[in-house]
C-alpha cells in the first residue's frame, strides 16, 4: 500500500460494527485497534489493562468529576486521551490501520488517508444479534447507544452518527453480501487509489466481472467455481472455466465499447 489508509468505524450497538471492522482489517491486511490499544496504554502507566478497560469508551459522570478549561480529573477522560494520543502517534508514523470507535473520525480528521464509516441498523436486526430476550436486548441496546453518544459528544464537536460527520453511513441490516455491488462505488470513491478494492462473493460469470470492474473494483476473487471444476473436470475443467470467463468478459466489453480493462466504467452499466 503506497499511501496511508485509515478506516475509522463508528457503530450503533448490535449493528455488527466490530465484525465489519474485523473483516475490513482482514481484507486489507491492516491492524485493528479497538480496546486492544489499551494494552500499550497500560504498559506506559504500569497498570493492568483491566483497570483501564473499565473506563474504555465510557462517558464521565458530571456528578463526581468535572472539566475546567479543557482539563478533567475524570479517569474516563484520562483513558480517552491516552487512546487518542496513541492513535495520533500511529497515524503520524504513517501507519495504515482500522480503528473501531474512539472518536477516530474527528481525532484523526487531519489525516489525508482517513476514511470514516458509521454502521447503523434497523432495531429488529440489532435485537436479533443481541443474545438476550427481546425486552432486555432493547434496554441493553439503548443503554450502549446512550453511553456511546454521550462519550462521543463529550470529546467531539460533531454529532455521533450524523451523516455530516462521516464519509459513509451504512445500514448493515439492509446490506447482505450480494449488496456489495450497491456500496462498492461509494467505497471506491472514498478510498480512491490508496488501496486496491477487490470484490469477493457472487462472482460466477464474465458479466459479473465486468459489473464489478465498472462499479470501481480493481479486481475480483473467485473460489468455489474453481473448486467445483477441479473435482468435476480436473485441470481441463479449470481451463474450460477460465476460457468461459474470458470469452464472456471479452464479449461484454465488445458490446459496451471497451477496448481494454482500463476503459471499463460505470457509464457502461444500465441505470434502471
Helix content: 40-55%
User: Under the CATH scheme, which class of the largest domain?
Assistant: Alpha Beta
Give the overall shape: elongated
Q: What percentage of amino acids are in beta strands?
A: 5-15%
The CA-CA distance between the termini, in Å, is 36 Å
Name the CATH superfamily classification of the largest domain: P-loop containing nucleotide triphosphate hydrolases
Describe the main β-sheet briefly.
5 strands, parallel
The SSE string, one letter per element, is EHEHHEEHEHEHHEHEHEH
**How many domains in all?**
2
What is the mean pLDDT?
A: 83
If classified by CATH, what would the architecture of the largest domain be?
Answer: 3-Layer(aba) Sandwich
What does this structure look like?
This protein has helices spanning 17-28, 38-45, 49-53, 75-92, 104-107, 123-128, 134-155, 180-191, 206-214, 224-256, and strands at residues 6-11, 32-33, 67-68, 71-72, 97-100, 114-120, 168-171, 198-200, 219-221. The protein is of the alpha/beta class and 272 residues long. It folds into two domains: 6-195, P-loop containing nucleotide triphosphate hydrolases (Rossmann fold); 206-268, no CATH class. The protein is elongated and about 70 Å long. The relative contact order is 0.12.
Amino acid at each position: 500500500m503506497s499511501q496511508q489508509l485509515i478506516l475509522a468505524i463508528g457503530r450503533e450497538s448490535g449493528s455488527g460494527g466490530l465484525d465489519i471492522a474485523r473483516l475490513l482489517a482482514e481484507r486489507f491486511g491492516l491492524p485493528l485497534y479497538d480496546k486492544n490499544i489499551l494494552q500499550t496504554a497500560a504498559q506506559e502507566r504500569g497498570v493492568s489493562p483491566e483497570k483501564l478497560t473499565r473506563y474504555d469508551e465510557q462517558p464521565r459522570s458530571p456528578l463526581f468529576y468535572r472539566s475546567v478549561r479543557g482539563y478533567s480529573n475524570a479517569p474516563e477522560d484520562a483513558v480517552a486521551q491516552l487512546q487518542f494520543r496513541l492513535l495520533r502517534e500511529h497515524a503520524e508514523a504513517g501507519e495504515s490501520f482500522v480503528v473501531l470507535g474512539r472518536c477516530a473520525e474527528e481525532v484523526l480528521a487531519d489525516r489525508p488517508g482517513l476514511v470514516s464509516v458509521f454502521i447503523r441498523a434497523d432495531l429488529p436486526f440489532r435485537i436479533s444479534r443481541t443474545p438476550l430476550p427481546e425486552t432486555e436486548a432493547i434496554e441493553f441496546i439503548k443503554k450502549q447507544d446512550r453511553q456511546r453518544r454521550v462519550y462521543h459528544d463529550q470529546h467531539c464537536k460533531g454529532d455521533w452518527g450524523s451523516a455530516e460527520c462521516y464519509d459513509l453511513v451504512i445500514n448493515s441490516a439492509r446490506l447482505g453480501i450480494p449488496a456489495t455491488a450497491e456500496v462498492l462505488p461509494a467505497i471506491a470513491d472514498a478510498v480512491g487509489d490508496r488501496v486496491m478494492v477487490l470484490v469477493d462473493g457472487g462472482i460466477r460469470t464474465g458479466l459479473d466481472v465486468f459489473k464489478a470492474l465498472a462499479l470501481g473494483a480493481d479486481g475480483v476473487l473467485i473460489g468455489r467455481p474453481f473448486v467445483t471444476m477441479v473435482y468435476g473436470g480436473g485441470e481441463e475443467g479449470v481451463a474450460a472455466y477460465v476460457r468461459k470467463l474470458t470469452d464472456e468478459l471479452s464479449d461484454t466489453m465488445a458490446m459496451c465499447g471497451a477496448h481494454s480493462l482500463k476503459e471499463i466504467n460505470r457509464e457502461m452499466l444500465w441505470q434502471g
